[in-house]
Amino acid sequence: MIDEQMAVFIGSGLRLAVPIIFAATGEMLSERAGVLNLSLDGMMLMSAFTAALASWATGSPLIGVAAGVLVATAVAALQAVLSVTLRANQLVVGIGFNILALGSTTFLYREIFGPLSRDPIPGFAQLNLPWLAHIPVIGPALANQTGLAYVSILMVVVTWLILKYTSFGLAVRAVGEDPRAADKAGISVAKTRYLGVLYAGILAGLGGAFMSVADSNTFTENMTKGAGYLAITAVIFGGWNPWYTLAACLLFGFATALQFLVPALQLDVPVALLLLLPYLLALVAIAGFVGKSRQPSALTIPFERGG
Amino acid sequence: MAVLELSGLTKRFGAFTALDDISLQIERGEVHCLLGENGAGKSTLCNLVFGVHRPDAGTMTLGGEPFHPRGPAEALQRGVVMVHQHFSLVPNMSVAENLMLGRASAVLKPQDIIVRMEQLAAEYGLEIDPEARIEDLSVGERQRVEIIKCLLGDPQLLVLDEPTAVLQPDEIDALLAICRQVALRGKSVILVTHKLGEISRVADRTTVLRQGRIIETVAMEGADIRSLVRSMVGRDVQSAGSVLAAAVDIEGKTPAKPSGAAGPVSPGEAVLEISDLVYRDPHGVPRLDGLSLTVGTGEIVGIAGVEGNGQTELGLILAGLAAPSAGAIVVGGAQVGGCTPQEITDAGVGIVPEDRHAVACIKELSVAENLYLGAIGKFSRFGLLDKSARRKAAEAMMRDFDVRASSPDVSMASLSGGNQQKAVLARELSLDPLVFLLAAQPTRGLDVGAIEAVYNRIRAARDDGLGVLLISSELEELMAVSDRIAVIYRGKLVGELAAGSFSREAIGAMMSGHAHV
Amino acid sequence: MVMKNPKLARVAQGARLELVPLQVLVPVVSTIIALGIGLLIIAATGASVIEAIEAFWDGMAGSDFNIGASINRAISLALVGLGFIFASRANLTNVGGEGQIAMGGMFATAAALHGAGGLPLGLAFIVPLAVGTLAGAIWGGLAGVLKAARGTNEVISTLLLSFIALPLVYWSVESFHLLRKPISDVSSLPESAEIPDSTKLPLLFPDNGSPLHIGLLIAAIAVVVVWLVLRHSSLGLRLRAVGLNAMASRRAGMRTSFYVILAMTVSGGLGGLGGAIMILGQQFYLTSDFSSGYGFDGLVVGLLSRGSAVGVVIGALLFGFLRSGSINMEISAHVPSAVVLICQGLIVIVIAGSAILTNRKVTR
Questions:
Q1: B91–A177 C-beta distance less than 8 A
Q2: 8 Å CB contact of A100 and C342
Q3: How much is the pTM?
């Protein structure tokens, strides 16, 4: 009985972590380049809705994911134009996009799905990898995931490789630390930041699409419930490092999953405290009380070439 | 054959014309110096060539082909490289990573860079550890990294913007030697400086800029240094006296004592007593290492030294912006080491800080607001500001100190550097009580007229009985204004000279740590 | 007095002259464009635009009751917006209005339910208001302390503090030993009991059925005080100096940490007051999502105002009426109120994006 609950807990913790892993990994790269996308939540929500809509319309969850990523990337492109080219306040723009995303998805959902909202949406099946299932305790939970969940871990590896071993990654780090120096070394600050934001958009799109077509097979109003903010929090808590960010996402995923486990185990821990735990941890981390988490020097600061 | 040819280049910033109709040719294999005062347009010219800015009019050709770089990337691609006044290295990355930045290859190849670094080390004697992080390197080493970065791609044209300001004398020698090496290998060098001593040692030809225009271009063989100075400042050196010598730093020239500073002044009782001052930076590196110094009433004590030997830290500590790790500072009998800026001000200390924009004024605020920045409460009743009373008081102060602005209500940013500095001096010299003034690099970035005004103010303050500590990296300035010069090296004073016994050679030797008097 | 460069002075003045209308023009034009897009969207759904507008107008200002309700909404938004511009005078961006409202509302509810009800002389509602203000002030001040002591970016900390505050409210209305009302046979929703009548804010026009309460007077006083402090007081100048250049301000004798903490404390306190007024003036009991959206709306109001207290009033009224209108539009004309969210999002994005036009600096 306890084993079974444990498996459910691990499974749901992982499922809850996956969209945050996607979004946080992309956001981490974008922030390393100096752009903070508060609009991450909006990108995810737009993608979740678009993926649900496209999957429902075509019957193919794959097309759904593609459409979701496309829309999230479009939002990211707008965010990039505003925060890089127009040098707008990145945070304010991000909040604006989140309000817009909430408004437009809620509106379209009611207009399009209104009467059909109980219909399930075609989604991905779980892969059930037998070789993983044999691992004790965590095996079944690991094996019973959709393909997208494995892609999220792959993206962490890819992002880590990009940052460490490619010229683009070096440019990203330089642009986020000292854009003036990078500019004078012949790097296009604007282009690097655009690519960073678009990368965040693509991954946030994957994360959002995962929510609707891989995890729940439905769309609900405001279904991200602040997952984008949680992802940004994970980046902070993870100290802008891909692996620590991954660990933070898993921690947050399991912390959220605890709220289902705690009542089941009849423990007397207020669920609210579990909900605020990730944010509290991040606050403690950003205040510098834990480890050495140092944000990129040029984070949120627009670059303007001067004399 | 000309590598770079400029014709009719003009660059404006708003209503201000920084460069006006510049035409110039840089030959292959020459070291070409650009000489001019601050604000003459030297840096702007470099920035046009390097693509940081784009000209409003005129054309450039590079190797005979049209050259209109839209950014540094394009300039680099065409073989134009630049070492900037402010280094452009990413501080928390390694030397190798900085060198790989902006190189065309999708995947990083640190091994290739290390091999190339070894070649350059053999060719020019430029050695440095590829794994070292930039933030751990000294200023001289960082500049070496900049130069290596420039030479990696085998450039046609190397532009150096005021590269020697931050270097010690032996480092300057090494740098000038590298410039000649580079020219010998058929590349061209543009060297920006306002120090004639360097020009006569390294340049093939020199172009003099003044107020955005080219005054003349001369071959250095057999050139008359004095006539270059005249072109640079637009006045005769003789008439301008020590001020000019200080501004241009003519090597070997001993300035005549201006009347204001004539004769050794007998200092009165001590107003400032620093004993065994120690300051360690956040990394634990000692920046001040047992510094002791006394300044009496009615004397100007100069601190000479190559930048980065603890002057900045001394200034910050005296201003109350950094706390000493050990040692005592006494002003007029009161202990002020580690006190707040307000307590230090109350003890009668006026501060003209080294970094005017960061510490002395707030450029977005009005002149009046800046003049009373430390006394905001003086013009307020029940917490509300009496702006007309403040304006009146500010107008009076501006008149007294010759601060030129159309009104006390214009922003500080709209004033010239000289008028900003006069405003800062006005504020600090109007403090009451006032027994001691720190003037750190008080003429940096000012034009000749303003420099003279600043010197006169400082001398007048001394004559009124103030003790003055003058920190400067311009040796001629110190020799012209000080009654006594102490030399700082690696965080402590290594020697002292009384008025009448100032000698460039002696001070220079002490500054580089070679001789102890 | 001779200006060194008369041309430069003229350029500077010219830029200022055209700046003023642009600062007004941009918000007005963006609002009009956004509302236009909103109407197009309504038309696209096939709903009757006329009917929607009628319902919208009716909800905003169709009756004394609706006008009162709209203004009551605007009061809290204005207080949050004032808090935003107060902090931004010191160059601090307080995006944590939502959390400050939540803390203010929660503690005001606690004070009203536990003790304040029996107090005489209006203290019954003044004390909960003060407690709520204090709670918001602490919540905002916490971000100020982190900024001053640890250099923590206040945008990130205020945002995180909001996400911490919301579960705390949820916790308080979930737990019987905190604020949750005892389960009765009628309802067992997770919410607090209704506050005593004595703690409710007195109505301004009790006879004509308008819910407009004395929060209006409180907000009006706050507007005047904030305007005076920011524009005409030595404190305002000090805040501005510290925000523009902390180092130079320190050298001039100002305790910069104190002003950073003060700015965030006052900013949070205004948000907390806004939250307390929401509970004591119109909602009367605490629910877990009572603050939903008000924080970001208030932030947008502060942003739209470009630092002007009068701008905050206009923006708050605009958003207060928009909200009321959109709710009625959904009920009577069956147009989802999310349309208004779309408009709001567009307004924020367009105004933030056009800052490059209005913030143009005169560079040498």
A1: yes
A2: yes
A3: 0.81
